[in-house]
Design brief:
The complex is a heterodimer of chains A (523) and B (259). In chain A, 57% of the residues lie in helices and 9% in strands. Chain A is mainly alpha-helical and 523 residues long. In chain A, strands 3-10-4 form a 3-stranded antiparallel beta sheet. A 3-stranded antiparallel beta sheet of chain A has the order 8-5-9. The longest helix of chain A has 31 residues, at 428-458. The radius of gyration of chain A is 28 Å and the shape is elongated. Chain B has a single domain (2-258), classed as 3-Layer(aba) Sandwich (Rossmann fold). Chain B contains 10 helices and 10 strands. In chain B, helix 4 (110-120) runs parallel beside helix 6 (155-167). Chain B starts with a helix and ends with a helix. The chains are: A mainly alpha (523), B alpha/beta (259). The interface between A and B is medium-sized, with 22 and 26 residues.
Chain lengths: 523, 259
């Protein structure tokens, strides 16, 4: 047997009948490997503080974390989780102990109540049967607001939205979401009888447009730090049209009373103005979350003042590039290995039956059509947050290309050669091992390559459920509108994809004779 | 293993004077009757030619012998014993198989192609290389080909290699499905001559499917003429030629003379 055959042997090993049970063993051990060692450490378990993936949420979570740390509680920060659903599910599952939420979001999105301004008491009443509850609100209301230049407001003496009804000459531009939402401009203009004919604009560009005097009025969030940067003010919602989005800590009930007391220290202390100012210190002045939080909390005598660096938001990133890359590789390679362990044997088992293989490919294809972030969110109730659900989601995504290429590769082998493999006296297993699988290897490899590249791309989204990896700087960068941060994740991820592509080409050269590549299917 | 295989055949030899017997065999594909109640005995250690037009059922009849096609009814016996379909892979190792277009595995070298089954039968390396070398000499193949891949060889060379593969285990029976028909006339004649020589050196039962009566006359001792799934006439080549049962059989020989 020459080197070529020997090299192929290890691939062939994947096809033995023992693989399914091996797959189960490997899967189990991998899952165990990724689980935090929780049982032994319950006594000293850190309090897990999470945040959503936008500026204000990071800042509030950092404050909560520092307050806990000041009282000697160890804290694990899981910042930048991908949205309300992810945070909520993680909190309910006990993967997270506290994160800042908004009363309106909680009422509308999670508890589905038709109350534009639910109080803390009402929310806790609705949450009575669940293991989670809200603490006292910070004091600010981060709701939709109508923003304009402070100078213009002074000049025309505008302080409330109702003042706008006589100002039909003002040019109005709204973000597309606000413009088209029932509870956005449509309802607002009806309630206040506003005569304006707004244009739609990408929200990020609206402030710049006002600054350039191209537009007078736009929608904003009332605590947006950028308002200060552009010298904008907001109009009072004098008819209480907008729902209230009061910021408050959302916690697990089981937290000790002392901890809840610590988390309640900010109750009523942060009004819209202050929140806007604090946000502005991050997004406008480029201070770190830790710095802004520490300065404010020290000023309130809640924590000791600490000297911190001034590296800007980049300082936020706890993990180095190397660490992120390794995590990324770990997520994708485990997912890919699982995809191969299931995809190959499954493809081999089903390829003979047209109906069964069609069903299997459809199911795998269905998986592919679930948007990644939705699939990740679906994983949370089952597997919580972190690396395990991320790996499982990536594994599901890698299945289709591996499975489809395996089936197609086996099906497209010359029927004459298949019948000869039978006729010369090879058993079914030997036909697979010596003829079918070796002949299918080029196409199977192509499928694995596709799966690998898809996984590397998709794995950047794993940061939304706290799995880390190269998505972490990207997600943070998106939240903070920092190109620098986004590139810190995007460039290594792109490089990784290219390297993997090259590696697979090398592997192909090693495993496949050049003349076998001629009739390769292109995926 | 080698011995076990030989034993398996030797003990069978003693049981019958026929290599293959068909007993009331029927086969249909999608309601289309392809083999119609064929009963037929093929002689031991002779070359039998199954002659017929395309679609006559001659290839199906051949594939009933090695179990690539299963009979709907009736029975196929090998050396007097009904085919053991449960252990069909082992049964097939007692039958060499070569087809039109050679059908060598493109990912294996010439040597790997020829010796694959011998290695699985756990022959010793010495046994393998001895048999391999002998076959290559018989078929006038260069030993330089051993490490090459099939696509590097000409059609005639590939066909010779496929005959070597079919004969590697020294099977008592060879099944050949038009193995020479895709070759150019000169190459075909050469390989046909080599085949005759093979039957002198290593005599065995051979079933050869062909649509070419001149090839049948040249290579075979026993002739089976098949038309629309039925045996029109069978017997020694000379008997059939001299006493054709009908116009159709006579015409097959006449066409050949016209050629």
């Amino acid at each position: 047997m020459n080197g070529f055959l020997r090299a192929r042997k290890f691939i062939v090993v994947l096809y033995t009948s023992r693989v399914p049970s091996l797959a189960v063993t490997v899967l189990t051990s991998l899952v165990l490997f990724c689980m935090p060692a929780s049982a032994t450490e319950t006594a000293k378990r850190p309090i897990v503080v999470a945040s959503k993936n936008f500026n204000e949420s990071y800042l509030l979570s950092e404050m909560l974390s520092q307050m806990l740390e000041a009282k000697g509680y160890p804290v694990e920060r899981k910042f930048g989780l991908g949205g309300t659903l992810v945070c909520y599910e993680a909190l309910r599952n006990g993967e997270v102990d506290v994160y800042p939420e908004y009363s309106g979001t909680l009422g509308r999105v999670i508890l589905k109540v038709d109350d534009p301004a639910p109080s803390e008491a009402r929310l806790n009443q609705l949450l009575a049967d669940s293991p989670i509850s809200v603490l006292d609100s910070f004091g600010f209301n981060n709701t939709y607001a109508i923003a304009l230049k402070a100078s213009l407001a002074r000049e025309r003496q505008l302080s409330a939205i109702s003042d706008l009804s006589g100002q039909s000459d003002l040019r109005v531009a709204f973000g597309l979401e606000f413009l088209n939402r029932e509870d956005g401009w449509i309802g607002l203009s009806a309630l206040y009888d506003l005569p304006h004919d707004p244009i739609g604009i990408e929200h990020g560009l609206a402030y710049q447009a006002i600054d350039d005097n191209k537009v007078d009025i736009t929608d904003a969030y009332s605590t947006d730090g950028d308002l200060a940067r552009y010298g904008l003010t907001t109009l009072v919602d004098d008819r209480q049209y907008f729902p209230q989005y009061i910021g408050l800590p959302f916690v697990r009930n089981e937290l000790p009373v002392e901890v809840k007391q610590i988390l309640n220290q900010l109750a009523g202390k942060i009004d819209d103005e202050l929140m806007r100012n604090l946000n502005g210190q991050v997004v406008v002045e480029g201070k770190t979350f830790a710095e802004v939080a520490n300065q404010y909390l020290a000023g309130q005598n809640i924590v000791r003042a600490e000297v911190t660096g001034t590296g800007g938001i980049l300082d936020y990133l706890p993990d180095s590039l190397l660490e992120n890359t390794l995590t990324h590789l770990k997520l994708t390679s485990i997912a890919l290995a699982l995809g191969c362990l299931l995809g190959f044997p499954l493809g081999i088992v089903v390829y003979r039956s047209k109906t069964v293989s069609r069903v299997v490919v459809y199911v795998a294809g269905l998986m592919q059509t679930i948007p990644s972030i939705a699939l990740l969110a679906l994983m949370i109730p089952l597997f919580g947050i972190g690396q395990v659900p991320a790996i499982i989601a990536l594994f599901l995504y890698s299945l289709l290309p591996i499975l489809r290429n395996t089936i197609t590769a086996l099906l497209t082998i010359d029927p004459l050669l298949k019948s000869i493999a039978e006729a010369i006296g090879l058993t079914r297993f030997q036909q697979l091992r010596y003829v079918l699988v070796p002949m299918a290897v080029p196409n199977i490899l192509a499928g694995v390559k596709t799966a690998a590249v898809i996984s590397i791309g998709t794995a950047t989204l794993a940061a939304f459920i706290g799995a880390g990896g190269l998505g972490e700087p990207i997600v943070t960068g998106l939240a903070l509108n920092s190109t620098e941060l986004i590139l810190q994740g995007a460039i290594p991820a792109a490089c990784l994809a290219i390297i993997v592509e090259l590696l697979f080409e090398g592997l192909e050269k090693l495993l496949v004779k050049p003349h076998m590549l001629q009739n390769q299917i292109t995926e | 293993m080698h011995n076990r295989l030989a034993c398996r055949c030797n003990e069978n030899f003693s049981l019958s004077s026929n290599c293959v017997q068909f007993r009331n065999v029927n086969k249909s594909f999608q309601e289309q009757s392809v083999i119609k109640n064929i009963s037929l005995d093929l002689p031991l250690n002779e070359t039998t030619a199954l002659v017929g037009e395309s679609g006559s059922g001659k290839s199906t009849l051949l594939r009933l012998v090695n179990g690539l096609v299963l009979p709907d009814s009736g029975e196929v016996k090998l050396f007097g014993t009904p085919i053991d379909y449960k252990d069909i892979a082992m049964v097939r190792r007692t039958m060499g198989f070569a087809v039109q277009g050679a059908g060598l595995f493109p990912h294996l070298t010439i040597m790997e192609n020829v010796t694959l089954i011998a290695r699985l039968e756990k022959w010793s390396p010495a046994q393998i290389s001895e048999r391999y070398a002998a076959l290559f000499d018989l078929l006038a193949l260069s030993h330089d080909f051993s490490d090459r891949y099939p696509h590097m060889l000409s059609g005639g060379q590939q066909q010779r290699v496929s005959l070597c593969r079919a004969m590697m285990l020294n099977p008592p029976l060879m099944l050949l499905d038009e193995p020479f028909s895709a070759l150019d006339p000169i190459t075909r004649r050469t390989i046909q001559d080599e085949f005759i020589n093979l039957q002198v050196v290593e005599r065995r039962s051979v079933i050869l499917v062909t649509h070419d009566m001149s090839e049948a006359e040249k290579l075979a001792e026993f002739l089976v003429i098949i038309r629309e799934g039925e045996v029109v006439q069978s017997g020694a080549v000379n008997d059939v030629r001299n006493n054709p049962v009908n116009e159709y059989v006579r015409s097959l020989f006449e066409q050949e003379h016209l050629n």
